[in-house]
Fold each of these.
Amino acid sequence: MATGKINVSVDNIFPLIKKFLYSDHEIFLRELISNATDATLKMKHLTTIGEAKVDYGNPLIEVKIDKEGKKLHIIDQGLGMTEEEVKKYINEVAFSGAEEFLNKYEDSAKDSGIIGHFGLGFYSAFMVANKVEIITKSYKDEPAVHWSCDGSPEFVMEEAQKDTRGTEIILHIADDSTEFLEDGKIKSLLSKYNKFMPIPIKFGMKTETLPKPEGAKKEDPAPTVEVDNIINNPNPAWTKQPADLKSEDYKSFYRELYPMQFEEPLFHIHLNVDYPFNLTGILYFPKLSNDLNQQKDRIQLYQNQVFVTDNVEGIVPEFLTMLRGVIDSPDIPLNVSRSYLQADGAVKKISSYITRKVADKLNSLFKNNREEFEAKWNDIKIVIEYGMLSEDKFFEKADKFALYPTVDDSYFTFEELQEKIKATQTDKDGKTVILYASDKEAQHSYIETAKAKGYEVLLLDSPIIGHLIQKLESSKENISFARVDADHIDKLIQKEETQISKLSDEEKETLKTELEKVIGEKSSYTVQLEAMDSDASPFTITEPEFMRRMKEMQQTGGGGGMFGMGAMPEMYNLIVNTNNELVSEILNTKTAKKKERLINQSLDLAKLSKGLLKGKDLTEFIKRSYEMVK
Ligand code: ADP
Ligand code: MG
């Protein structure tokens, strides 16, 4: 028997380990299973290259709870360790790793920015155990070793009785960590961290039903057997070659990742690159709603099939965090904060690779099956629009396949749209005006008016569309967007020829004065007289585009307190069609009272059409209208 003192400057490192990683105690299991996996894969390698003349067999890793003994066992059939190796790897190397970790992260360990805690390795066992034993037998012809340590730097090492190759780690679970003796807890940890690890992991037994033997009677129960309960899938889809997978395989892997998700993904992207960095993975486009916040954090990050985190912020661009799936890369540094991560060269490359792959996939879907792409557009547009807004590289690519649907469900690319409306919607200054609606129901009458004039009206209803419109306006020449209710159409798309007004200048002057008198001088409505078709609406309310955009930006927080202003003032135009019969009638009405009534009723109708008539005004309007129809 040998005893010794682990060479370390800190007297008792274990309480420190415990303290620093208080929030992440559970990762000890991931670390120990990673070690067991490494040891098994090393064994496989040694037998493959003929270095070890032993039978590799079908090794598995077993996790066993001994509730009474308050012990947790992790047993592998890997390459094991000789006495020399335990001294070297456990007493020296592993410990220096732990110490280095503590020195490095003394200040920042509490910073939630640290992802995972790789590198702490074996000694993370002391976060949950007050004593740890190792019983190990090397594949080399040397006696087995029993090492134990009770949480002080002192350890005991002696010869052990173990005939089979491999390592057993025994954790004597501390009183404050007894949750790790619960089946349910261990099961959930195994499925969180080890679901896709490359070596089968056994946790308990399970009952399997066998087919009934021939000639069995109907009422005979089917025979059952007890078999190892393997909790992981050692060969997940992303580790395979795309050519070996069918579309059904991708779908079933999606169900494996998200068992509670009943909706199928719209399509997938298989990531597979080994130079200049190593990355594999599968990303899925789920059906996305317009809610930006509720759908993040579904991509899982792995390193060599070991789960690391489901917060990939900083590793994939923000707009892609709405996707789902798996990214596996050994090249992503993990012991660093998020802000460092974003500055890391390798991570930047990975991020732009993923962006490019996503853009390429979308582009090929668009090119190869436009119909299907259009059908899916509304479920995926939020990601694409968000990406176009936030990543210039993506904008460049997406500009070719991003779609602009009309209120009648035609889908144009930007180029197609421009081509289509160039002749009809370009004003005399050469600017093409793109009309859009954000709500088909609320803006119905405006949409109809625009369509009657032969204009295309887009339906753009994403929450971020306002920002994207601004980006398009600033990056493309001679175009501008206007919502259908932004200004009077004829005013927006000014042509050389204008309609002749039925009213004389003098009559117009009188009409304007009288309207303003009734509406009130300080009201938020500016009266504008326009000569239009006689059957066009007599009164229309519009809201200047810039005014509405400012208001919207304030609402979405973009311009909160912009220019130090409070709430934006209400500002509307009241467009009066001087060629409409009702307008002439108002002008020619002799009694002042009747005239006032006509104006008020007309204004209310215009407000109603724009959805501005509410509360008391609406109640009174309805009352008045009943009086009139009586
Ligand atoms: P790392 O895994 O990063 O090398 P650890 O602290 O987890 O650091 O482990 C230290 C070393 O101890 C390993 O590199 C390995 O040589 C050895 N080791 C740990 N667990 C096992 C095991 N189950 N079988 C064989 N060797 C092991
Ligand atoms: Mg390790």
Amino acid sequence: MELSDSVREIKGIGEKTSQLFAKLGICTVGELIGHYPRTYEVYGNPVPIDSLKEGQIAAVEASIATMVEVKRTENLQLVSCNIRDASGSIRLTWFNQVYLKHMLKRGIRYIFRGKITRKNEDLVMDQPKIYQREEYRRLLGVMQPVYPLTGGLSNRTLQKAVSQAIGQANMPEDYLPRRIIKENGLVQHTAAIREIHFPKSKETVQDARKRIVFDEFFQFILKLRQIREKCQAEKNRFILNETEQCRMLLENLPYKLTDGQKNVISEIQNDMSGHYVMNRLIQGDVGSGKTILAVYALLLAASNGFQGCIMAPTEVLAQQHYESIGQVLEPLGVRVCLLTGAMTAAKKRDVCAQIASHEVDVIIGTHALIQEKVEYHNLALVVTDEQHRFGVRQRESLANKGGHPHVLVMSATPIPRTLAIVLYGDLDVSVLTELPAKRLSIKSCVVGTSYRPTAYRFIEKQVAAGHQAYIICPMVEESEEIEAENVTDYTRRLVEALPAGISVASLHGKMKPSQKNDVMTRFAKGETKVLVSTTVVEVGVNVPNATVMMIEDAQRFGLAQLHQLRGRVGRGEAQSYCIFVNGSESDKARERLEVMNRSNDGFFIAQEDLKVRGPGELFGVRQSGELQFMLADIYQDAGILAAALKAVDSMSDQEREQVMTLLGRSLPLSSTICV
Ligand code: ADP
Ligand code: MG
């Protein structure tokens, strides 16, 4: 049996089961083998009934003490009976397994294994599995794999199929050079696969896991390296030299650039006038002044006679960029347009026509830049702002719109080094380490809900001093399931709590784009003093006159997200404040929020967040289908990641060639990246 064979080749797997497998993304024997257990169950010796505790999964050996009862409710059939051993008795319950009524006879002994839960006052064993004593003996002490499943597919079916596949498939030769295996203390690939599914012991399964995690990282990085080499070898067809307009832009800025900004500008300049295409990521904390760098690059493209575009993750941000970038570039003779999904079809057609005929130089927009049928005219530069909302593939599909344009990516969340390698290993990286001078650091506090009246009085004072405030609520409107502050009701209450002279507005994602725009514009102009909003303002929004950020139910947000929200203030020269309102009683929530109090450093906060939530949620990459390592965890396995990185970069040309050849016939292990 070959790894590329269909799972139908495995005995006992017919049409129906293979369809269920397909739901899990398993079509071939190799994919089946690459479907690793989620965890393991160890079947322990049966214990006396009176020692059972709530929450535990345990086995007992006991005899059926009562008749099996079947209770029918509207859509369920509840099957139950009591069992007894020398120490006591307990009730067993099952759903919809009516056949048990005929199978379980009073007085007969079985071993029952299941989860102990509490119903009303009593402990019950929920959905126990039933074994004969001999049958159970054979399972005792063995680590049984528990697989991710889908409705209709049982763990036993999957387990049997994997066991057959491993027994019969032709496993390929190990693709890793012996040197790398030795240097990293790894076990052989085939042994690791066998062990991860059917481990001999806790220790050996750790070794197996280490090898597979290493493989996942190794292959991922190898692919990223290939992409990078491909990009770096891409000839620059848009050689862009500094123009008079570029010099004017820099001379007329209302502030002095930081050293970091100056460095990045010269890096961009070098890249764009060099032999090869630019592929650069700019990393910098919130408020470090990334936008101007994008503006410079866009101007470089436009003033050399080409087009450039910038893609933002939200309508609100695209609109804001359109206004602020337009203000800077139009006086320099650059024609700027906006393209977003929310525009009317007629308007979009109009804008697309202008783009195609090169009546506009700089195009600012949302996803519409990829989704709409846009034909660019000599697109020389693609910028994506606040990158964590976009995946690698989206970045690529925009870059593919032109004939190999330069690519500039601006990250929203500062990313710890290990993660940067994985997310952006295909890019050159610039880091802005400092915030513009004269910025006072934002004063933060974590408070309970009883602090609200004080906070409102504080906001009143700030407004009286000419400033503005944001208040963030997690929800748009009241929900029955979740108890959290919502924008709609909150605004109503806030209007009552604040003096009549203070204008309050609300903003959320469910509003029409034109409404959102109006609200944002009035806030940016200072007409509205307090903006009650959902997280639609999370990224990019820039209203430097706002000095207070108050976040309700702050415990509901991730730390990196809170840092982004806090970054909406502290953008001007005045002292700014951030009030995190903890709407929960839990100590854990408070401890987590205290991190925000202690630190204003996005890199540190992202690292802390990564510990708690993992990279998928933190960077929104899980939804985009990337970074789906089967076993590897970027945070927990950072050590292995570093080792894999070193191993990839240490390979001689000859070793690398050998690896590539062998990998060609190896397991489709890395369901990790699609390029
Ligand atoms: P981010 O890095 O979060 O995207 P922005 O580019 O939006 O930050 O910049 C935040 C604010 O700082 C803007 O109002 C911008 O005009 C201002 N700014 C940028 N660079 C400097 C600088 N060198 N000195 C003072 N203010 C600056
Ligand atoms: Mg920004």
Amino acid sequence: MFASLILPVPLARTFSYRLPDDMAARACVGMRASVPFGKSHTYTGIIVALADAIPEGGFEVRDVLELLDEVPTVRPMQLELWRWIADYYMCAIGDVMKAALPSELKPEEGKQGIVRVDFRPKMKPFVRIILKDELADAFDLLKRSQRQQMLFTTLLDRSHALQQEVADVVAQDELLRASGSTTDVLRELVKKGLCEVFEQEVSRLDAPLADDQLQPLNELSEMQRVAYRDICQSFRDHAVTLLHGVTSSGKTEIYMHLMHEVIGQGRQVLMMVPEIALTTQLCQRLRRVFGSRMLVYHSKLSEPERAEIWKTLLRDDARIDLVLGVRSAIFLPFRQLGLVVVDEEHEPSYKQQDPAPRYHGRDVALVLANKHGAKVLLGSATPSLESWYLAQQGKYGLVQLKERHAGISMPSIQLVSMADARKQKGMNGPFTPRLLATLGHALRDGHQAILFQNRRGYAPTALCPSCGWSPHCPRCDVALTYHKSTRNFVCHYCGYQTPWPQQCPSCGNPNISLEGYGTERIEDTLKQILPIARPIRMDTDTTASRKSYERMLADFEAHKSNVLIGTQMVSKGLDFSEVQLVGVLNADSLMNMPDFRAHERAFQLMEQVSGRAGRRIGQEGEVLIQCSDTHHPLLHQVVRHDYEAMAETQLADRRRYGFPPYTRLISVYIKGRYEDRTRRLAEQYAAAMRQSFGVRVLGPEAPGISRVKNFYIQQILLKMEREASPTLVRQYLNRIHDAMVAANDEMMKVVFYYDVDPM
Ligand code: ADP
Ligand code: ZN
Ligand code: ZN
């Protein structure tokens, strides 16, 4: 018998091996096996097919070394999804496997053969009480030590030894905490034969809630009920439905009702959220209803936790009905999905940038759902233009919620001119007088505020006023950002750091000045000019761990601070009832990005961050947007909360200039150490592409940031009509690539990859 395997190598194919008889009897598709590779390597891969005949090819077929599973680690439907991803996103299936499998389930190659890495159960010490006939005898043994008595009574109590035939075992740490004891005291009890300590496997996953802590679903409001009914209706003739509901309209409540329904039919639900929207608030809200039938899958889990979730989902008897997860949750081994909810479906962070597979979590979720015969609900207050367009075309169903829950009004948004403030010399750092006054007022009234600036660090750049020098990364084509907390200039692309120079390296001027405002400098400035403000800052610098992120949210919720300053992290999923004011510090910087999606993105960010204001009855939220050009049409669409007008304007532009959703884009990247060679190859490559695709090929061009980590970057953009067959396009591209590699040795000296549907 022969097996083909996916191996963790960046080649777009599978590999065949012979299965020795003892393994042939046990082997199944989806099991892990280790095999020899090349002269001296051993790799572990996944069996994707079994066959009786020698596969064609004529080359020598070697033996599988070891079968690592008793039951498959990967389900057949997952393998199908991997294949689709490799195909559509034009990458090696080995790379998809690497992204999909938790590393605990992915034995790595070792120096002497393979290292057996596998899922290790987590063990914890437990205590079991030993009761002799007379309880009095036991206390007799302890009469000289109050601490031992204390521990023993706690153990009696916690193990229910007097109420039950067989006493419960008690976790050691819990017992010591409850009795205020130490392990020394416990050791004495063991010595006296009153209890024993042993290790027992425990779950790494969240402890389940007791049933009495579970709550029923909230009843839907009239408006929500109508939406719920419309969604069910829409699912009858659409696999995908878009729920466009303003912030705080109750989309999450509706999701929960739909989930409940699907779970009741015995099928599973995947709810996807962007990383930054996965807050404790949301987890708790869902856990209160779904309890231990829900698992949470995020990027800060440890590898053993990841593996435990995978193993749990593989067991058909484990009653896991709901996974709340980020992008990579699409890789989990679901038994049978009935519904996939993609919340905040417009979020660009659903797209994986690096490394391959460069997939879009939402788009893969559609394929995943389709394989399971599940329905998909895309939810957003500001849908992506791609999804909105498909809904307008009738390809997706569309359901809308135009009002906030419980009659709470949408926050009122006003534009504040920074140009005017500058003219009157009224700017105080990054603040207009109007924003400062309103902020002071809100804080004095005991309210909270959120300030949004899409720039972390202290100052985006520094400048020598006499010669114009400014610090740049030696490895990347970008200006360095100053971070005051570390007193360093930092490259946000490669992490390069360099200290503040004593004087200008170019002309010797000792007075270098900082330009612009990052979140760190805004926090600093605010503390100086508005003493009542007690700000905390939330960006990737301050929230490196999930714990610190949650601590900040908890502190803000507990009013330990009254101003939350942050990057786009503060725009998502936060539900603080006391936030009355939201300030956007610089709308121009959002709109002026060199990207055809800049305006769509700017609208989404401003609308979402505005949605954090005034989420409670009887307190209207206020939003101030500082900008230079108060006449910009996009800003007026934001002020009117007019998503549809924004979509219409932007779609007209996209159609005129031939951008998605009217076309499909594929970026071809060539990166190399030498500028000349990279450029020359990219030109040859583009010329070869033009022979097949003609004017649909744009470039090569160096992207806005043309060098990162000492690699020069060239990009060729292929713009295809929406109607063109993606399969055919990929065939052409693969043929061109093969021909280029065959004709040109230098292709082996550069990094080459595709980015399909780039963001
Ligand atoms: P969205 O997901 O659209 O932003 P949410 O579902 O988070 O809106 O609802 C906003 C707030 O209103 C939440 O605090 C939620 O608990 C509350 N809410 C919404 N609908 C209901 C309802 N039917 N019953 C009780 N509370 C509701
Ligand atoms: Zn200078
Ligand atoms: Zn750099």
Amino acid sequence: MSDPMMIVTSIEELRSARPLLDGPVGFVPTMGFLHAGHLALVRRAREECASVVVSIFVNPTQFGPNEDLDKYPRDLERDIRLLDEAGANLLWTPTPEEMYPPGYQTWVEVEGLTRPLEGAVRPGHFRGVTTVVTKLFNAVQPQKAYFGQKDAQQAAVIRRMTRDLNFPIEIVVCPTVREPDGLAMSSRNTYLNPQERQAAVVLYRALKTAQSAYEAGERDAAVLRRLMSEVIESEPLARLQYVSCADYDSLEELEQVSSKALLSMAVFIGKTRLIDNLVLE
Ligand code: AMP
């Protein structure tokens, strides 16, 4: 039997608990309402590190004014149980008041990589992400940190930030965990009614359609983007926000696919905004 998971809220408590952990320490930052995608990150950290720290923080600064901050799903009791079962050693649940006290005015910003895709339609989103991840990294001081490929641009931005700011942390990006029908797991899937839930598989179908075309020899990125748009548009409950076939490293839109590329999209299913992606190797 391993020790029960420690749970801390304040930064002071975290600082007292941190030296009790054996190293190397693996860190999994989340916004909670955990699913199998989050737990796969915890398990991977468990395999590679002596101790695992998880944070649950619905970070207000990464939500736009018309986004879902207030209704973002929460279930801390359930999350605690799942993390304990998954073998996490320390859970940190910071408060917005301590993370952003009155007069807060320090921000971390990654430039080029945050401009396209999510950055173009969610202004300020990545500034919130990179700022909070910096604060979490500074407090937890992990040797490794685990992120999901589901949020491909976020993973790329965090990698770049870690390199640019010389954080002594290895960033590990883990594969997207999907439902049996292909829908990428997301805390936001809980917003979907049964009809919308069925319709939501269209993102994966669109990505797979473009991937199949690529595997059959199609290299024209505009054709791949069009194929994905057509699949999305065939679903009455779906509204396409953007579709992309971009260079994997720069995230710039491609004309021809000649090296590693990222197919990605953002789609509204009813009022729920979903994102997904696949890599073309
Ligand atoms: P979130 O709680 O949505 O902020 O996600 C916390 C971490 O879990 C991020 O690194 C996400 O990329 C990752 N994640 C979310 N969904 C999945 C998934 N379906 N598969 C793998 N990782 C995921």
